[in-house]
Amino acid sequence: MASNALERTARALDLIPYIVDRPGILIEDLAEEFKTTPAEISEILNIVFMCGLPGYTHLELIDLTTEDGSVSIIDPQNLREPRKLSQIEIVSSIFGLKNLISLGLSPEAAALANSLMEKLKELLNDVKTLDVIETSRALPQSPHKQTIDESIKLGTTLKITYKSLTKDEISQRTISPHRLYARNGHLFVEAVAHDVGDIRNFRVDRIAEIRSSTEPRIEATLEVLPDAIQVEVFIPRSHLFFVETHREIIESQEIVGERMLLTLNVKHTDWLFRALFAIDGEVEIITPDFLAAKFRSTAKQALEGYKELGGRLLSGK
Question: Is 134 helix (H, G, I), strand (E, B) or coil?
Fold first, then answer.
């Protein structure tokens, strides 16, 4: 018998295509085939009856009938075939596991990740693609990662010699690191840069030297909410870069005419405002009301500041 919701969901995904191929099958036969009880099969079918694709009207719900103990599925939506990972999904999962391992895992977690990766390779069964995977580079190992990890855990600061990619210069920085993360094949550290008192992101492979510092730690100047809140915001439909860059905080997205409606999970309101102001085009926060009002007020103040600055430049003052 399935012991939790995850197992029941997995069983339902297997159950639907099985019934599609065997319309009118008895609940008792399903229970025997799936090694469970008729009562649990009935419970799963009651849940399936309320599931469907986005929209969730009667037109998008899975349509099934149960009569005299037999089951038939009239409309399985997109679950007609048994669940199976596509080649792209398998390859993406393998690369994700490789990068996860390269970031550093406990021996137990690394063993599980390697075991899962080998099973996925067996499923792939494509010599050419496997060759590409085997010769591909995972995230480069950095001798600075352990130092940054320890600083984050202990709440200390670091002094770094950093080679800027955009300015083509070497600078000495003191930072209070907050987290390590991977993006586009590189390892980054998110930290407060003491010279500006704000959050900056540094590519770890561009750190030439790193050492501990006795300077007091500086926390982010961002306004941090006690709990993450859901923010609905309209951005131009064409601005997919924002979506790709911040996918980890995007709860949902929907195309509405020439605009895109995003639902975001946000804790740092100052960061959100800066990110939205950087978008070229009309941007509007819909909910919550207090954040929408603050965003409009901040935008108005910024616009008035630009107008004042432009007037001074034109007058030569």
Answer: helix
